[in-house]
Amino acid sequence: xxxxxxxxxxxxxxxxxxxxxxxxxxxxxxxxxxxxxxxxxxxxxxxxxxxxxxxxxxxxxxxxxxxxxxxxxxxxxxxxxxxxxxxxxxxxxxxxxxxxxxxxxxxxxxxxxxxxxxxx
Length: 120
Description:
- The chain is mostly beta strands and 120 residues long.
- Helices cover 0% and strands 52% of the residues.
- A hairpin with a 4-residue loop joins strand 7 and strand 8.
- The chain starts with a strand and ends with a strand.
């Protein structure tokens, strides 16, 4: 089992910055692929950014150049640095861990989400 707890959300003005954190419990954080997703009411949960066990990253086109995903394996923590925030970034942000049991068997774990609101 992996338990994930997000923090760092809040209200910020357009153009501002926030840093989200996701702390994982349990062993093996460094062996999990990690990602941030976001969701608005009535819409599906979409990938924002991902980072593999090897540190390879990928981003949604809408956040490239503004958001940075990173991980600190010593602290079992995933981060999302969000700069130049826009009102359309408003959403609940979720942390996801993909735990691998074998090359073909994995399980996804989700945090409870943290609200980010970008508004003047």
